[in-house]
């Protein structure tokens, strides 16, 4: 390995003597996209795709229901982005913000966002050029190469294309794709992509040009733009990530500020489900955008040769690690070499170290690879494990590879999964928003929702949200449950959550019951014990019958018929009134039923005297 290191050093010195080529990317790419002017027709300066937005429905929402929701807001689905559940939606121009806001409020929609235009995160420098690749020594790449050299790892470069004829890249190329055109034209139309590719995997130990941290990693060129200024859309980056995942790339580098995109995050989650990782740049605005950490991708900020934050580099909670990115030497599309600045180069340098980790221990899952990368990084502030400038620290290739070799890939722990909304015994109808939480020691790959044991849908991105059509179930009790699977195929199951489905609208009951006194008959003469029978009928259900004699309640019951034995022996002779009233379960009260009876017989007879 010593021979390799000597050759690498001499090649760097040779590169330092080469004529400096100024990078092609215009300085406009360093401006904040949010402050750039917009114009219809997709001209330079516009910062989103006019007339289009990106929308992901909750898992389980049918295509018909989704189309109805979108049409209701003036949109029309143009189809999904490759294998992703994200739809590209056509909307009236200048209505993009309004439709995004409206759809974002719909409980059946997971997210809606504009298809933003993003620039490659390079920085046109004013600094003098360096004559050697200082970044490789800084991250201890030579020591890492003694243990792993990235063999068998393919890193996708999502960018402006790659000049595959470069003498330091030609032997490292594999088949790629042009996302906007849908063909194999991956020629570099800007220069940025070739510079990034050199950082990912310029041929090393070949007596030509420069070395790369990736050493033996292969390069998959994926062109995500046909615009010479290097701008591209969230949708094209997301489709590029998906294409890379589906065609054998284990790592995808996107040197764009995409940590704030839900669509790109969905694509990154898809890549993780395939066993891969997405690495992206933090951006060159020298600011904190205020975003939280994006757990789906590795976001990288830039440092200088002095191991401090580069002045142009963004910072904040979304930064996972940092890597050299100031005045670094790499390949250019003219076939030579240039020095570049930007988090665009911190990102591919990190991607190449991710490749080394994967080649050192192919059994590690994506979450374990990221954990190794972060845990092995050098703290740039003593006593501080995480810092908003540096994340978990500046990457250290040698420490990362050593840690990967010492990390066990065995994982027998199943995820913990819970269905937490709607609440237990909730009354539901129509499309029901169901929320599921799932956690795991290494990471969750997918979560599936079931209703009465039947699969509703599967979601691969957090938060795990579903739209369940309760119309598919009969009214009554339904049991909701969920399962979660991690990268090691361990499966966890939730406890059951019971809900009450009520999709049949109850008819209002306004009809009062009818009540009849069937015995005794009206006008009867009674004596001794009288059997009184009352019957009631209702279109829904009788709740209560009350029996009264001379206005006083003597009996009641909740059945549709009651009987009462009336002892008349001590009741005064004459006419008495028996009445009854019935009430149904809706509170409707019947008319009063009444009969009159006369008490007579023994109670009115006289005793005759006998003869002596």
Task: Output the keywords.
612 residues, alpha/beta, Rossmann fold, Alpha-Beta Plaits, Immunoglobulin-like, 4 domains, seven-stranded parallel beta sheet, 19% helix
Distance between the termini: 152 Å
How many structural domains are formed by the residues? Answer: 4
Largest sheet: 7 strands, parallel
Shape field: elongated
* Rg on CA atoms, Å: 39 Å
Percentage of helical residues?
10-25%
Structural class by secondary-structure content: alpha/beta
Q: Which regions contain 5 or more consecutive residues with pLDDT less than 50?
A: 1-45, 123-131, 602-612
CATH topology of the largest domain: Rossmann fold
Named CATH architecture of the largest domain:
3-Layer(aba) Sandwich
**Count of individual beta strands:** 31
Put simply, the count of helices is 11
Strand content: 25-35%
CATH class of the largest domain: Alpha Beta
Arithmetic mean pLDDT: 87
Largest beta sheet: strand ordering: 6-7-5-9-10-11-12
Name the CATH superfamily classification of the largest domain: Peptidase S8/S53 domain
Short description:
This protein is of the alpha/beta class. Helix content is 19%, strand content 30%.
Could you characterize the architecture of this molecule?
The chain has 612 residues and is α/β, with parallel strands linked by helices. The chain contains eleven helices and 31 strands. The strands form seven sheets. Strands 6-7-5-9-10-11-12 form a seven-stranded parallel sheet, sandwiched between helices. Strands 16, 18, 19, 21, 22 and 23 form a six-stranded mixed sheet that branches. A five-stranded antiparallel sheet has the order 2-3-1-4-8. Helix 7 (234-246) runs parallel beside helix 8 (262-273), helix 9 (343-360) packs across helix 10 and helix 9 runs parallel beside helix 11. The longest helix has 18 residues, at 343-360. Mean pLDDT is 87; it is low at 1-45, 123-131 and 602-612.
């Amino acid at each position: 390995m010593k021979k390799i290191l000597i050759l690498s050093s001499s090649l760097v010195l040779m590169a330092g003597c080469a004529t400096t080529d100024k990078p092609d990317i215009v300085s406009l790419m360093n401006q904040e996209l949010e402050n750039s002017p917009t114009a219809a027709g997709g001209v330079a300066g516009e910062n989103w795709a006019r007339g289009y937005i990106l929308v992901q429905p909750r898992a389980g929402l049918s295509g018909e229901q989704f189309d109805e929701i979108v049409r209701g807001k003036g949109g029309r689905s143009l189809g999904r982005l490759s294998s992703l559940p994200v739809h590209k939606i056509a909307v009236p121009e200048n209505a993009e913000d309004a439709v995004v806001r409206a759809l974002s409020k719909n409980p059946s929609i997971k997210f809606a966002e504009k298809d933003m235009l993003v620039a490659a995160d390079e920085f046109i420098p004013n600094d003098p050029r360096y004559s050697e690749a200082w970044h490789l020594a800084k991250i201890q790449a030579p020591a890492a190469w003694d243990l792993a050299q990235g063999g068998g790892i393919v890193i996708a470069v999502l960018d402006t294309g790659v000049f595959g004829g470069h003498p330091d890249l030609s032997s490292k190329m594999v088949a790629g794709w042009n996302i906007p055109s849908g063909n194999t034209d991956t020629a570099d139309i800007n220069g940025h992509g070739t510079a990034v590719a050199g950082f990912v995997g310029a041929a090393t130990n070949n007596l030509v040009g420069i070395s790369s941290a990736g050493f033996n990693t292969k390069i998959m060129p994926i062109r995500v733009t046909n615009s010479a200024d290097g701008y591209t859309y969230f949708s094209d980056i997301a489709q590029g990530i998906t294409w890379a995942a589906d065609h054998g790339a284990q790592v995808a580098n996107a040197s764009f500020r995409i940590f704030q995109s839900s669509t790109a995050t969905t694509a990154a989650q898809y890549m993780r489900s395939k066993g891969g990782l997405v690495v992206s740049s933090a951006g060159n605005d020298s600011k904190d955008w205020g975003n939280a950490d994006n757990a789906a991708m590795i976001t990288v900020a830039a440092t200088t040769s002095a191991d401090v934050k580069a002045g142009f580099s963004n910072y904040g909670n979304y930064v996972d690690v940092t890597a050299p990115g100031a005045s670094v030497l790499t390949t250019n599309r003219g076939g030579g070499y240039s020095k570049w600045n930007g988090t665009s180069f911190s990102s591919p340098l990190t991607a190449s170290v991710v490749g080394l980790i994967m080649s050192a221990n192919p059994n590690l899952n994506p979450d374990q690879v990221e954990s190794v990368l972060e845990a092995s990084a050098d703290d740039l502030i003593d006593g501080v494990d995480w810092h908003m400038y540096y994340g978990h620290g500046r990457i250290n290739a040698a420490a990362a590879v050593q840690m990967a070799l010492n990390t066990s890939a065995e994982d027998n722990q199943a995820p913990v999964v819970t269905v937490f909304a709607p609440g237990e015994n909730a009354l539901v109808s129509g499309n029901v928003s169901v929320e599921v939480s799932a956690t795991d020691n290494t990471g969750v790959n997918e979560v599936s929702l079931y209703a009465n044991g039947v699969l509703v849908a599967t979601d691969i991105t957090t938060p795990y949200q579903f739209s369940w059509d309760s119309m598919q179930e009969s009214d009554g009790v339904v049991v909701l449950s969920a399962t979660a699977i991690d990268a090691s195929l361990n499966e966890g199951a939730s406890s059951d959550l019971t809900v009450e489905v009520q999709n049949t609208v109850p008819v209002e009951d306004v009809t009062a019951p009818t009540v009849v006194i069937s015995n005794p008959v009206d006008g009867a003469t009674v004596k001794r014990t009288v059997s009184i029978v009352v019957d009631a009928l209702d279109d829904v259900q009788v709740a209560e019958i009350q029996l009264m004699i001379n206005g006083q309640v003597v009996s009641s019951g909740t059945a549709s018929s009651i009987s009462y034995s009336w002892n008349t022996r001590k009741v005064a002779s004459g006419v008495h009134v028996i009445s009854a009233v019935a009430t149904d379960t809706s509170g409707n009260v019947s008319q009063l039923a009444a009969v009159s009876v006369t008490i007579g017989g023994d109670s009115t007879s006289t005793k005759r005297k006998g003869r002596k």
